[in-house]
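Thread title: Can someone regenerate the structure for this chain?

I was given the following input by a collaborator and told the matching structure tokens would be attached. They weren't. Posting the sequence so someone can regenerate them.
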Amino acid sequence: MSADDELGTGEAAPDLLTLHESIADLFATRGDWRRAYRHLRSALDIARAGSLRDPLTSSYNRRYLDQRLPELPAAVAVALVDLDRFKSVNDTYGHLLGDRVLCRVADLLQEGLPADAFCARYGGEEFALVLPGIDHRGAVRVADAARRRVARHPWSELRPGLRVTISVGLAHGTGSGPRQLHRADNLLYAAKRAGRNKVAFHDRETAQVITHSE
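Best answer:
Regenerated them for you:
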């Protein structure tokens, strides 16, 4: 039986990080430094990846967003997403259900994203959708499709009477990723002021708001 077999047989398997560390320790005690090093590298890769993920929603976190944005081309589109009246969800249904709502919204936001795009939890009930290599119309379609998915989701299955919508500020054009994020933040407030459950974006230097068609 191999060292991996010895550590893999048990009623409850440990998480991958602990598993690689344990295997590395076992190989080290046997003097097999090559295999020990291989598993230590795997543990390090897992730990590094985990530090870039939000522990609640499993989407990327603010740290990952801050690292990636400066590396992206100037044509990147950034959508800043905020759950509408999320405080009332927590106050009415409790924080445990609020956490479930955040996780479900994160899943819905990540559905159908273009290649190279990603979703990151920006903080609290805010998420960022980063859309590299996409034109203005395509970015609007992606942002509004995400808004519609959230609005049409059967939230009452989680709790009768529950309804969840999002507002989105979408920035697209020339400028660095961090600058686009700042623009998206300003546009998010325009979507909120327009009544929520909307996407706001600049079109020909005018703030145009797309209203939902339901």
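The beta strands are 77-83, 118-123, 126-131, 166-171, 199-203, 206-210.
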